Amino acid sequence: MTALPASFSTPFAHSVPDVEQRVLLVVARSLDRDPATIDLNSRLFVDLDAESLDMLDIAYSLERTFCIRMPRVNLLQRASDLFSEQAILKDGIVTETGMDLMRRSMPEIPENWIKPGMRVYDFRLLITVESLARVVHRCLEAVARLCCSQCGGAAVPNSEFSMAMICADCGHTIELPSGEHLLVDDLRRVGEEMHLPIVGEPA
Amino acid sequence: MIAANEHRRVVITGLGAVTAFGRGAMQTWRAIVDGRSGVTARHPFENSANPLQVAGYVDIACLEGFGNEKYLGRAAQFGLAAGLDAYVDAGLTPGTPHAQKIGVCLGASTFPVIEDRLDRLGSLLDGSRWNAQCYAQLCRERPWLLTQSDAASISSLLSDRLGFEGPSLTVQAACTSATQAIGHAFHSLRAGQATVMLAGGTDSMLSMMCVTGFALLGSLAQRWSSPAQASRPFDRTRDGFVLAEGATVLVLEELHHALARDARIYAELLGYGSSCDAYRLTDMQPEGRGAALCMQAALRDAQVLPEEVGYINAHGTATPLNDRIETHAIRQVFGSHADHGLAVSSTKSQLGHLLCAAGAVELMVTALALHDKILPPTLNLENPDPECNLDYIPGLARPAAVNVAISNSFGFGGQNGSLVLRRWPQPAEASSAAVSIPPLAVTRRVCITGIGVHSPLGFDLSSHVLRWREGHSGTESPATPEMQALGIPHAGRVPGFEPHNRIANRMLRKILTPAAGFAVAAAGEALHRSGLQPAEIEKLSLFVGSLGLDQDLNTFGEALRQSLEPALPGLEPNPSEPSASASAPERFSYSRFHKHGMSLIDPLFLLKSLPNAGLCGAAIEHGMQGANLNIMNGSTSGLIAVSAAADSIFRGDTPVALAGGYDSLVQLETVLAHLIDGRLRTGKEGGNGSGYLPSEGAAFFFLEEEAHAHARGAHIFAEIAASAVTHSPSGTPPEQGAVAALERAARASAAAEPPTEYPSCTAPNAVFGDGLNLAGHDALEAEVLRRIGCRLRGIPLHSTVSRLGFAGAATGLFSLLHAALTIDGQLSFAGMANPEQPPEKLLVWTSDRGRNHVAIALRRSPDTAATEAAPCEP
Ligand SMILES: [Zn+2]
After folding, report:
1. Looking at beta carbons, which residues of chain A come within 8 Å of B507?
2. By Cβ atoms counted within 10 A, which residue in B13, B480, B579, B689 is the most buried?
């Protein structure tokens, strides 16, 4: 499965529906499905029979399509690194705090999908097409805020290298923001809302 | 003395190992018992621009004094050292008599070490594609670039060094490779086909692309604070495995042979079981079905009850999924015994994951645990996981006299293997009667009842046969642009293969290379033609001979291109290679690769290039969970797989098996290996001795015990009367080994003949061989035929290569297919005595560059035989 062509020149100037539509097409292509049979609420592992390998393929295709870097880590694992394992998990089961954190971190997921008794690896069962679109949009926003560390100039796509930006003024290479850092930033924000103390830094 | 129909007992009499702990089995064992970790952090490729990487690195200096092996790959050096050490440890010396009864069977992997090509990268890449001519030039200068990717050469080297003439085999089953290699060697010893086998595995996948591949798959441990703590099997905080390199070879020996020479015995090898998850390429089946199946099969094979097992050396990779599911599978197999007197530990907590060598080093550790009465620990098990709740021997080795132990391996792709060991000597209380040796039952007859093929002539048997009969050639497709640039105009391509029409499983359509796709489709056709019921398909055994390398280097083209930076003035790449500095304006930069390059690589590429993808794909697509074996022996792979399958039916392991193989010679790396050896025909005209055109394809055979076939009224194409696999060590004339294989197959087939039904004559009606149109190989073939008497009697040699091209492992299978259809009366060949009268006996053989030889004797099944016997000599 090859990535969709990154044919647009301003990757971040896209509306939410536009991003959602493109994400849906990437998912449909990777899972070899008719896009008409998929919608934003389709759960990848439950409704679309995705396997863990598909997620790698989809993340790769989304990166190439949108010129972003997607996070590839389990949200709950990162949360236990940040806020202590005891806060998030008890005997392998997601705690009330963990469930609250998930609801706040994944606002697109219907609240009642997040049920008591969930385990770390059940997390992926929640992921919908919309979840991916939200993450892509989050990454695109971060790309839109990029500017040159040398001269403060605007970041524009790099014609020579598809996975970095370039300064429009001085030509300095501007790295794409890491999806993992964005995910951790968001976790910190949610943790603050919930008054969760930070006990460690992710490895 | 052992009666001819009795299974032999097999013991371990020699050990050799090269691991992160150094060279020598005892060196590794002492470190294991001391609870040390071999995992360290290094900047890969001694380049501090790279982020630190944790792995079980072998210090190559530990092999010093080993000889001038500069151009051997790391895995070859490890394997050779471990093999020679094991042989010496067993008290055997080169020149030991009965060389034809001694063989080698190793698990090994194959992957081009891209680092060795990086100094020329600027000129090797045309945009983001490899420039075939520049790459060919580089490979001519450094021929070892290509031989390093030839994993099958490692077992051959070892056989060469020690002068063995028995089979020299390479097994590829991802992380189960060594366990499968040992299991296969064990079964052939038990059946009396060999008296000594050097079995084990060797691997080094710490090169840039391999590490990248595992990292992109998300398989590697990331949340570690110190290297020694990175590998955390069964710990709640585990998040992946730690890569390691090394080798272990065990000397397996038939018991009486060992006792007669008063050999030291480490342990007895009691049983082996294998299975396929037939679920997904990387995810384990969630209930641990395949893992449980192979442990049960191994216990059955060993005739041991679950309660007798005191220790399991687990696969225990420290991936979240494996450890949970392996625990679950152990509970399924051992029931309440799992909580009462069954200890489990993971050697990977100390050594990391040795991949294709893991099963061998872990079996060695298990054998020494029984021998020294001390069980190795699981390190870093500090946070109990509620779903991993067995006795894992945390932290410290534990003294315990265990009688029976198991070693488990489960691989990417879903191939599983378990080996059962028993302490030696047996405690006095165990009477000799407790050692029951399953007898070999009466001789069974094996026949072919289903055939499937994907060839340059067509997608199934009927179109292949039809187009063959019509005289079509399969080698008229235009070659790939890379091949054309190298002067190869045509190739035998399987025309218009469309996975959508041939493969139902979505993930397989996404992952499999075309070659592996041919295998899945051809296996399906053979299965379909056999008419076997679904319930029997589930238990079916699967034997595949695969290609060795299936990696399209262009997969990395874009990533490598983006990792180039302008060369620094005054910093020439390599003064000893002046041409490099002249043509390399840009240099590869590791830091650019890590920053930019990696993200441009298909994260699934490593899976896509697995040489066992054909076997696993076929198992997944068709739901086959039975015993399995993937042979990776160059062009002899396919017929060796068929021979192994027939043997397992002869032995009574299974009444039915699917066997075959696939290959493709169209990837640049493979094309170059044949081109630079002067084997490929270039230019338009192909005169005498000008070589062959590269080709591809797959063929599979449904093999069945004759009684089973009769009971269900299956059509019998032909009977497999006998087979033989041999090796010619360097220094002996290659025809010697080849003749031995053919003679043994011919003689065994004659011996198996019921005297009244057939004329007692071993001479075949024809030989289906290689016919490669290469002076050396053709001369070898002619000499072999002369020596077995064919040339004297005018017995014709038949080959498909002139019309189908040379398709490596598939070519021997095409020969078998044509021979079987000839016996069945559906095809005839030039020189057939009477085209109306199908021949009685045909010999099929192939030889891999004079190294390995395999021969299969086919004959007409009595049911399909004509009422009057055909004359045995024309
Ligand atoms: Zn700037």
Report:
1. 51, 53-54
2. B13
A94 contacts in chain B (CB < 8 Å)? none
Decide if B10-113+148-423 and B446-551+609-683+690-859 have a common fold: yes
pLDDT higher than threshold 80 for residue B785 = yes
> Does some domain include residue A153?
no
Q: Is residue A48 part of a domain?
A: yes
Name the 3-class secondary structure at B115: helix
Q: Write the CATH number for A185.
A: 1.10.1200.10
Distance from CA of A203 to the nearest CA of B (A): 5
In angstroms, the CA A119 to CA B385 distance is 12
Predicted confidence (pLDDT) per residue in B242-259, tens digit: 999 999 999 999 999 999
Residues of A in contact with B506 (CB under 8 A): 31-32, 49
Q: Please check whether residue A125 touches B, CB under 8 A.
A: no
Number of domains in chain A: 1
Per annotation, catalytic residue among B184, B353, B727, B777: B353
User: What digits encode the pLDDT tens for the residues B515-571?
Assistant: 999 999 999 999 999 999 889 999 999 999 999 888 899 999 999 998 988 776 554
Tell me whether residues A53 and B604 touch, CB distance under 8 A: yes
Closest CA to B182 of B86, B85, B286: B86
Q: Which residues contact A75 (CB under 8 A, 6 or more apart)?
A: A102, A105, A106, A123, A183, A187
A149 CA from centroid of ligand 1 (Å): 7
pTM over 0.90: yes
ipTM over 0.90? The verdict is yes
Per-residue pLDDT tens over the stretch B451-463: 999 999 999 999 9
Helices within chain A (DSSP H only): 16-30, 52-66, 75-83, 85-88, 96-105, 129-144, 179-193
A176 alpha carbon to ligand 1 midpoint, in Å?
15
Is A77 in Cβ contact with B239 (below 8 Å)? yes
Is the minimum CB–CB distance between A107 and chain B shorter than 8 Å?
no
Fold of B10-113+148-423: Peroxisomal Thiolase; Chain A, domain 1 (3.40.47)
User: DSSP readout, B32-75?
Assistant: HHTT----EEE-GGG-TTSPPEEEB---GGGGTTS-S-TTS-HH
Contact A54 B509 (CB under 8 A): no
Nearest CA in chain A to B510: A1
CA distance B258 to B195: 9
